[in-house]
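Recap from last week: sequence in, structure out.
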Amino acid sequence: MKKIGIFYSFRSVKTHQQVKKMIKHFGAENCEEVDVDVATLDDFNKFNYYIFAVPTWFDGELPNYWDEFLPSIEDVSLKGKKFALFGGGDQKNYPENFVDGIGIMAEYIEEREGKVVGFTSVEGYIFEYSRAQRGDKFAGLALDIENQTALTNERIEKWVESLKKDFEIK
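Predicted structure tokens:
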């Protein structure tokens, strides 16, 4: 089995902290961190399972580094590959586009026949709209470190436990 590739910007301190918690729960032997700022197609092709850290910038946009990386995999078939998404948002100050980055990335992956896994409940969040929302679920793990810090560790732990099944990790 190939390891899980965790793609995120190494420049993001908050994201790095969350990734470290995930690796602890998955086990370091099951994960490899990839800096999306410098990632290549070869880096992407090393994995069958992916975790993409997709924070939401500004008024519901992907961070620039994702805009620069995604064209490198645009012509690659994602069929048979599994993707889990997580991202930070601020439901209090940006309730009209809370964790939209997760939704934008989920759409990108699904349009290319990739499978998004790791959906989580919208319960416990207060927001107006999110592109990440699918019924009563988010298309990934929504983290609001600004307003719900005390819930972050438990949310990560539960999410990783559910992903172990999807990623066939014992």
